[in-house]
Amino acid sequence: MKTAAFLYPWDVVGDPDAAARLADLGVQQVTLASAYHSTRALTPRHPGRRIVTAEHAAVLYPPDYGRWAGRGLHPYPQSWVPGDDPYAEAAEALAGAGLTVHSWVVLAHNSRMGAEHPDTSVVNAYGDRYPWAPCIAQPAVHAYLVDLAAEAAVRPGAVGTDLESCGWYGFAHLHAHDKTSGVALGDAAQYLMSLCFCADCRAGYAGQGLDPDELRAAVRRALEPVWAAPGSAETGWSGVEKLLGAGLAGATRQWREQVARGLQEAAVAAVRQAAQDPDFQVLLHADPASYRVGANVGVDPAHILSTADGVVLPCTGPDAAREAVLGPFAGLSGVLAANFNVVTGMGGSPGTLERDVAHARSLGATELRLYHAGLASGPDLDAVGDALSRIGR
Fold it and tell me: Cα(90)–Cα(104) distance, rounded to whole angstroms?
């Protein structure tokens, strides 16, 4: 079972032992960030640093200024990793240790874009903007994301790519100093809080036969019980229908699925065109509930596997969580990469990895992803290496 670990270029650049340490862990591949959102990351094994602060969403390679010249939306270069092309430097070191490399491309998650171009952001039913969440229905955002996917995915040394956030982003963000947990929102309320009411989305709802102003008012009415009695938070699509009504809910979902599919199809096609290699693998971080938003975008399983080569699915947690994400892909052809968090301090469970992987394989998983080799503690990596040695037998 092919196993890949996620990594940042700064985990490798400046650490001559990093690539060999990853190879010794027992993985065959590294999924290496080439375009990533803002973050503050620990580097527990790096010989020269312990903290990297990525101040804004950026590409970790020199962007093609000819591609982006004169465009309002463009990728931002990074300044926190030394060197002209930290992605290429890290990829070369990893390849030298016998590891294959996938690029890791975060798309519709960019707070700096939202700060500098606020009109590109998702606008909720209350008129609040989400600067971290570009609205993918806007033509300029769509064009930017498609071109970014092509450029950031096809980097020197990469034999494939994992595209994250290739769809709708929304309310949930894990923002710095987040203060949003005072009211526990079920995923039904999360969906309603993620509906966008920018000009393009308003036009899209109108195309579905809805009055955008009436829909906005309906969403706000539907959320009133959530603010009044948080313990009654609804879950699942049936919860969305209960809050908003089946007709309105279905029309919003149809519009959003149409937009997301268009982005996914265009992004995958652009990556393949840029790669000019039929063996270049394109996977999407995904969730089989198409109304879901975030890093693992909601998809229709049959559609996404007819578009991309496969999916990366969140599989950390109890058996039921794995069954919920892997089950809908049963019988379909494509790569099903089970993604496990192996950082105990971030909710991972490296000690149960062998058992959890066996369960995922029984549900059809064909590959394994480990999040995140650079962030994990020494004991966590020891547990992972021990599990992989047994899984490989």
Answer: 13
Q: For the residues 251-263, what does the mean pLDDT come to?
A: 98
Q: Which two tokens stand for residue 33?
A: 């960030």
- Cβ neighbours for 272, distance < 8 A, ≥ 6 positions apart: 280, 282
- What is the rounded distance in angstroms from the CA atom of residue 182 to the CA atom of residue 165? 26
Task: Please check the confidence at residue 111 and state whether its pLDDT lies above 60.
Answer: yes
- The pLDDT, as a whole number, for residue 184 is 72
Instruction: Please list, in sequence order, all residues whose beta carbon lies within 8 angstroms of the beta carbon of residue 221, skipping any fewer than 6 positions away.
Output: none
Task: Give the pairing of strands 129-134 and 121-123.
Answer: antiparallel
Q: Position 71: which residue type?
A: R
Task: Give the pair of three-digit tokens for residue 237.
Answer: 């699509």
Residues β-bridged to residue 341: 371
Nearest to 261 by CA among 142, 129, 109, 132: 142
**Each residue of 193-221: pLDDT tens digit?**
999 999 999 999 999 999 999 999 999 99
pLDDT for 340-360, tens place per residue?
999 999 999 999 999 999 999
- Give me the pLDDT at residue 351, please: 97
- What are the respective helix, strand and coil percentages of the chain, to the nearest 5? 45, 20, 35
State the SS3 of 246-294: HHHHHHHHHHHHHHHHHHHHHHHHHHHHHHCCCCCEEEEEEECCCCCCC
